[in-house]
């Protein structure tokens, strides 16, 4: 019974010591900047804010830090700025509305962290600020309510930061409620999580020591010893070593091995005497264990002296509990100083009644808060359910509309498919007819051309044998020869059109000098020009080389010159060319002062067999054939609509 009481005192001192230690916000100050690659300006300003964390002015400073981080695009420092606002209310002096302010900024950092995918800040503020605040204020039901919510959320999302923080929070809460079976469960869960995901093992010694203490409280010394052995593997400095020795000493006292307890106490005292950090952070812990040791060994004077030192340190921080007075009463009882023992027990009962009354008030308030939260959650769920029903109805209407659209599209697609089949059959029939037409034209043209060549040849022979005196015979043979040539030209044009319609390509790989080419065309057209017409050539440059198809290009230019000569009685015919540098093209113009083409007939003349004067000579295929040749060469043939003094045909093709 005495061992359980002393172990309970150990646990209480450990818990009070933990509540007195401020939580570490962002790791060690010296390595923080390098570790997180923080901008130097932001880091220095953050350290300034950190130094003023309890001052009311720090809230405005943290707003400035947030804006600075936002300008630099640093989401992590923005989260730190909001999170530090929870630090201000957590570490600052108590005031009315402190809890509401802490809840407000905890929700603010949770909202920001979730939006920016930074779960470490989401769970840190929730666990180490809000839940820890509830624990320190003995609002354990509220703390447990929030911790359970965090556990459900973090485990459902499989977020390791959240699980680590909530297991730690639940461990502290169950220790505070003296429910050590549950505390043991979460201490083990926390260790397993750290080992499974290879998390930071800096405080693993303390984790195992907490587990060992929980096992002692549930009277499982074998498991407590195993946890102690595991903690020894992670000792990295004298602070860890001191904590381990305290845990070992506690174990030996619990198991009544006072010989080893004496040796361990001596080693622990020596280590504490030479290490200042240990004396500052672990002094109370060692004093309460020493008190238990001397109680167990029956050295009650020493126990009372050590206890008094611990009592004074705890009094300075306002952590006097009924257990402390009961421990002092037990020491006085053992010393047979019954008057002081009675006084101590009276103090314990008085404080216990006061605490029980206060805790009942707190519990009532906690349950009222929890009921209020549940009521709000229920209303929220009802609103969500209504919203989901509305969304479901909307989706149902959308689905019906989509089904109608799909049916309409399906019908249209079916009709389109059927129409495409009909069109495909028509297209195939058209292509077949076109091929048959082309084959017919080619075969007939070849068959007609052979006797026609004979007619032309014999008409020329006949014309040469008729004497000049026989003018009538001479005229008839000339008509025969001209008609035969005209018919031969028609057949050649038809064959050429048929060939180009079939997609025959025209190669443009022959290099020519453009001025020389144009002068040859001028010479070929001179004999057709009427006496009162001036045929001239106007180049842009004295020399220009380009790659083209001179035969095809000459065919087009000569035809246009022949047309100009045919319809120009007087005036001029000009062949000119210009470079279009931006388009990398050549523009050749044939300009005349002839009869011209009416505005409404300018597109008609490019159609096949199109003739403005049905009695004029020609087949009406020249311009259609010329335009098709230019298109196959990658150019175009157009009529200048702005020119009204005759005709101006323009050839445009790539250089």
How does this structure look, described?
The protein has helices spanning 2-20, 29-36, 40-51, 58-71, 75-91, 98-115, 119-136, 140-157, 160-176, 180-196, 204-217, 221-232, 238-254, 258-274, 276-297, 300-316, 322-334, 338-465, 471-501, 514-525, 550-567, 622-632, and strands at residues 510-513, 533-538, 545-548, 571-580, 585-592, 636-639, 647-654. The strands form two sheets. A five-stranded mixed β-sheet has the order 2-4-5-7-6, with helices on one face. The chain is α+β, with helices and mostly antiparallel strands. It contains 22 helices and seven strands. Mean pLDDT is 82; it is low at 1-31. The longest helix has 128 residues, at 338-465. It starts with a helix and ends with a strand. Its EC number is 2.7.13.3. InterPro entries: HATPase_C_sf, HATPase_dom, His_kinase_dom, HisK_dim/P_dom, HisK_dim/P_sf, Sensor_HK_Regulatory, Sig_transdc_His_kin-like_C, TPR-like_helical_dom_sf. TPR repeats lie at residues 322-355.
Features:
single chain, 655 residues, alpha+beta, two-stranded antiparallel ribbon, 22 helices, 72% helix, rod-shaped, disordered N terminus, two-component regulatory system, histidine kinase, EC 2.7.13.3
């Amino acid at each position: 019974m005495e061992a359980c009481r002393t172990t309970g005192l150990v646990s209480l001192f450990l818990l009070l010591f933990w509540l007195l230690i401020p939580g570490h916000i962002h790791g060690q100050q010296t390595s923080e900047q390098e570790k997180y690659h923080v901008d130097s300006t932001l880091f220095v300003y953050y350290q300034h804010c950190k130094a003023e964390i309890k001052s009311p002015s720090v809230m405005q400073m943290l707003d400035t830090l947030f804006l600075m981080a936002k300008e630099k695009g640093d989401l992590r420092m923005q989260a730190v700025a909001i999170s530090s606002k929870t630090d201000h209310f957590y570490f600052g002096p108590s005031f009315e509305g402190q809890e509401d302010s802490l809840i407000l900024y905890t929700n603010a950092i949770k909202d920001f962290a979730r939006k920016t995918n930074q779960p470490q800040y989401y769970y840190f503020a929730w666990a180490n600020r809000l839940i820890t605040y509830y624990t320190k204020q003995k609002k354990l039901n509220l703390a447990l309510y929030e911790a359970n919510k965090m556990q459900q959320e973090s485990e459902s999302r499989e977020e390791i930061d959240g699980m680590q923080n909530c297991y730690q929070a639940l461990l502290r809460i169950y220790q505070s409620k003296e429910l050590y079976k549950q505390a043991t469960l979460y201490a083990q869960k926390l260790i397993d999580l750290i080992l499974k995901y290879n998390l930071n093992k800096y405080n693993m010694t303390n984790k195992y020591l907490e587990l060992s203490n929980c096992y002692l409280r549930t009277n499982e010394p074998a498991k407590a010893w195993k946890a102690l052995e595991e903690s020894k593997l992670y000792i990295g400095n004298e602070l860890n070593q001191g904590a381990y020795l305290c845990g070992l000493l506690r174990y030996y006292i619990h198991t009544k091995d006072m010989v080893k307890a004496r040796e361990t106490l001596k080693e622990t005292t020596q280590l504490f005497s030479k290490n200042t950090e240990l004396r500052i952070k672990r002094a109370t812990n060692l004093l309460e264990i020493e008190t238990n040791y001397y109680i167990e060994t029956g050295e009650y004077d020493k126990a009372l002296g050590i206890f008094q030192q611990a009592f004074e340190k705890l009094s300075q921080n306002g952590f006097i509990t009924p257990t402390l007075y009961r421990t002092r009463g037990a020491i006085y009882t053992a010393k047979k100083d019954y008057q002081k023992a009675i006084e101590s027990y009276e103090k314990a009962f008085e404080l216990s009644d006061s605490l029980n009354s206060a805790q009942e008030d707190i519990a009532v308030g906690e349950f009222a808060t929890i009921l209020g939260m549940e009521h709000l959650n229920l209303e929220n769920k009802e609103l969500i359910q209504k919203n989901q029903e509305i969304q479901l109805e909307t989706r149902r209407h959308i689905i019906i509309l989509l089904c109608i659209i799909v049916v309409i599209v399906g019908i249209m697609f079916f009709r389109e498919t059927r129409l495409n089949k009909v069109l495909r059959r028509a297209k195939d029939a058209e292509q077949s007819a076109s091929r048959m037409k082309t084959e017919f034209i080619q075969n007939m043209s070849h068959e007609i051309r052979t006797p026609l060549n004979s007619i032309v040849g014999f008409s020329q022979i006949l014309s040469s044998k008729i004497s000049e005196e026989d003018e009538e015979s001479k005229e008839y043979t000339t008509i025969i020869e001209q008609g035969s040539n005209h018919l031969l030209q028609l057949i050649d044009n038809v064959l050429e059109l048929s060939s180009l319609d079939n997609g025959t390509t025209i190669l443009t790989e022959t290099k020519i000098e453009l001025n020389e080419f144009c002068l040859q065309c001028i010479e070929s057209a001179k004999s057709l020009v009427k006496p009162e017409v001036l045929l001239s050539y106007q180049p842009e440059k004295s020399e220009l080389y380009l790659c083209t198809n001179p035969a095809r290009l000459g065919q087009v230019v000569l035809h246009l010159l022949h047309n100009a000569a045919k319809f120009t009685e007087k005036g001029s015919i000009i062949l000119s060319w210009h470079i279009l540098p931006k388009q990398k093209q050549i523009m050749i113009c044939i300009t005349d002062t002839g009869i011209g083409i009416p505005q409404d007939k300018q597109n008609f003349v490019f159609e096949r067999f199109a003739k403005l004067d049905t009695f004029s000579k020609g087949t009406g295929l020249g311009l259609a054939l010329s335009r098709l040749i230019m298109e196959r060469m990658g150019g175009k043939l157009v009529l200048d609509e702005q020119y009204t003094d005759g005709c101006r045909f323009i050839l445009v093709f790539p250089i």
